[in-house]
Design a protein that fits this description.
CATH superfamily: Aldolase class I
Radius of gyration: 20 Å
Number of domains: 1
Mean pLDDT: 94
Oligomer: single chain
Shape: globular
CATH class: Alpha Beta
Distance between the termini: 36 Å
Low-confidence stretches: none
Strand order of the largest sheet: 3-10-9-8-7-6-5-4
Number of helices: 15
CATH topology: TIM Barrel
Strand content: 5-15%
Helix content: 40-55%
Largest sheet: 8 strands, parallel
């Protein structure tokens, strides 16, 4: 689009920038979903279908987007979700992202399978960040990662529970992310990488080492992300139950957030297992296609758990208006994944900083025009349910 020669104005603008900059296999990895991507589309479409209730003649001369959650002050109810392999999309992306998040006054969550390690991210940070973890078969590895997270200053743990098995992501299969390409297809993939010279120099060359920093000790022979795949795939534990969450709760004395809950009964189980919060999530539509969107399930889960734990959500959040819609649906806060990595891939740390300013500005407009100058004023009544 001709306007893309000017400043990007929205998350979708950064998506286009990321698509132009990244090799196809990497863009499809962050952009795609499972199977036919119906749930991925529903996450966005169901937000678009929600209508806000415009109210006028209210004193909205001062708009306050701040909240307090997990003992922290946030400038707005938004956190950066964990993104696997983020450092392949932009040079040392996780270290840059934690700085941008801190400057914006919002939390950043580091993925277990990030390129930057806990220790590297901690050096870039000035305050505690969050850490995301899977329950691996090697419980010794889990304990070591928890200890490293504590040593890095992390006080909030996001524990992902919707990855007992890996969803079938057709884009990744077509691009050969798991192997299986013919010699000709491998040649074409190599030419695609070579065609993206700015990325190849900035990330492929200057961004080394391109490994999973948190897992380097467990796969010492690895020199690139693909070398970790077999080990990581072998560690996903399909036998995990709520009893394991109780074990984790006993091993972690910080805030425990269960990410990947999409059913009210599971949310109740999370509360009984000692969680402080849940993230209503379908893994961005990357796991089981055909399930409900996160925003559709959020009110049901909020109703089911009451005040037993905090309810956050992710999936389909593309603007500050969506943040307000999520809060009006009962969520305490949202996480964004694709938007922040699109911005980082497209324009680096300055791009992410600009995107976060945009989210906040959009929130302020939505709050002013719905007559809700404070976060506490946003409720079900903020939605037009006619």
């Amino acid at each position: 689009m001709p306007t893309m020669r000017l400043a990007p104005a929205s998350a979708s603008d950064y998506r286009r920038l990321a698509e132009a900059r990244l090799p196809r296999v990497l863009f499809d990895y962050i952009d795609g979903g499972a199977y036919g991507e119906a749930t991925l589309a529903a996450n966005v479409a169901d937000f678009a279908a929600i209508r806000l209730r415009q109210r006028v003649m209210r004193d909205v001369s001062t708009i306050d987007t701040s909240i307090r959650l997990f003992g922290e002050e946030w400038s707005m109810p938004l956190a950066l979700a964990p993104i696997g392999m983020g450092g392949l999309m932009a040079r040392r992306a996780e270290a840059h992202a934690v700085r941008a998040a801190e400057a914006a006054g919002v939390p950043f969550c580091l993925s277990t399978v990030a390129v930057c390690s806990l220790e590297e991210t901690a050096k870039a940070a000035r305050k505690p960040f969050w850490f995301q973890l899977y329950m691996m078969k090697d419980r010794g590895c889990v304990k070591e990662l928890l200890a490293r997270a504590k040593a890095a200053g992390c006080r909030t743990l996001l524990f992902t529970v919707d990855l007992a098995v890996v969803g079938a992501r057709y884009r990744d299969v077509r691009n050969g992310m798991g192997g299986g390409l013919t010699p000709l297809a491998r040649l074409r993939a190599g030419l695609d990488y070579a065609a993206h010279l700015p990325w190849a120099y900035d990330v492929g060359f200057k961004g080394k080492p391109l490994i999973f920093g948190n897992l380097a000790d467990y796969v010492p022979s690895a020199s690139r992300p693909g070398d970790f795949k077999k080990w990581v795939d072998s560690q996903f534990d399909a036998s995990v139950t709520w009893k394991d969450i109780e074990w984790l709760r006993a091993s972690w004395d910080g805030d425990l957030v269960i990410k990947g809950v999409l059913d009210p009964d599971d949310a109740k189980e999370a509360a009984s297992a000692g969680a402080d919060a849940v993230v209503v999530s379908n893994h961005g539509g990357r796991q089981l296609d055909g399930v409900s969107s996160s925003i559709r399930m959020t009110p049901r889960i909020v109703e089911a758990v009451g005040d037993r734990l905090a309810v956050l959500m992710d999936g389909g959040v593309r603007s500050g208006l969506d943040v307000v819609k999520a809060l009006a649906s009962g969520a305490r806060a949202v996480l964004i994944g694709r938007p922040w990595i699109w911005a980082m891939a497209g324009r680096g740390e300055p791009g992410l900083a600009a995107l976060l300013r945009t989210f906040k500005a959009e929130m302020k407009v939505a709050m002013a025009l719905t007559g809700t100058p404070r976060i506490a004023d946003i409720s079900e009544g903020t939605l037009d349910c006619a």
